[in-house]
Amino acid sequence: MTVLVSTPIKAGNSMAATTAMSSAGVTGRNTLTRPSHAAEAADGARIPREFVHRADDSDVLLTHFQACADGSYRMAARWPRAHALFSPVAGSRENPMLMAETIRQAGAVVSHMAYDAPTDLHFLLWDLRYEVPEEVLGAGVPLSPATAVVRFDDVKMRGKRLSSFRFEVELYRGAVRVGHGAASASCVSPAAYSRLRPARPESADPAPLPAPVSPVLVGRTRAQDVLVAPSGTPGSWLLRADRSHPVIFDSQSDHMPGRGVIEAMRQAAQLATGYEHIIVPSMNAEFCRYVELDRPCHLTAEHRRPLPDGRIPTRVTLTQDDEVAARGMLMVRPAAADSGANGTSAPAAFATV
């Protein structure tokens, strides 16, 4: 079937309210203030929970949707005080990893509300990146956004159905742009997914769950939230895919979901750098193949020398069956335990990993 470029629902359609917005703030250089996007989108259409593919209302990070005259989309954002997976760092600092989940949800919302994608479609995420501007970190601005501005690009359709797309997201708190990122994904019908992912044989039980590293070494308080286990090889860990986890596996999944993959990357990066508390102000992740649940998956992490601004480039790779399943470049920054300042904390002891 021919793949065609589609035109999304524009402002003026009945699905969403129209709000004129200048595109200059989206494509311009990094600055702290973007007044054209300061207004919240709380007067738009309410976003149903199923449109962000989450089972728990507390995990819905986007609440209202508007289509704009310039072809972009604006959504009201709401971060919880304490997310069940991307919890505050050192007990108080907002976790930038929530930007990754906000970006993923934004792509799903536009797919459903602007392109009429059915809710039974499977979304296959190929890559995702986000970044907190250095000037935001340096100014100590709270990271939780109030507004997400989304632009879809390279949209392809199969007949009348959404097939694949790429999109960019900018996150604002009032007039301050606190983060930005992008992702690309494909949409697969239930029938196509069944052909792509045939039922696993009865003998393919989940791999035994290995004992986790100590939660304190990866910034967690509960063993259930630890996604890595010792492998016996320095700089390498086993992935822990606990299917009873209420957030990572909040719906049926026959593989490790992307949110679990990126949190495992963060935990491996923290172990590799050895700090007691870290934040990840930027991440660039690529998802190459499904991470299966019935056989081992290994993570390796390598970090370079700190950059002049204090960030530590750390590359994390997930390998399964001798093939790369996912990889990411994380910019790690040590975080002070007592506040949201960009202080440093002492490295944890590697001997206990």
Automatic annotation (TrEMBL):
Transmembrane segments: none annotated. It comes from Streptomyces sp. R35. Pfam families: AfsA. InterPro entries: AfsA-like, AfsA_hotdog_dom. Residues 51-187, 217-331 form the A-factor biosynthesis hotdog domain. This is ScbA/BarX family gamma-butyrolactone biosynthesis protein. It comes from the Bacteria. GO terms for molecular function: transferase activity.
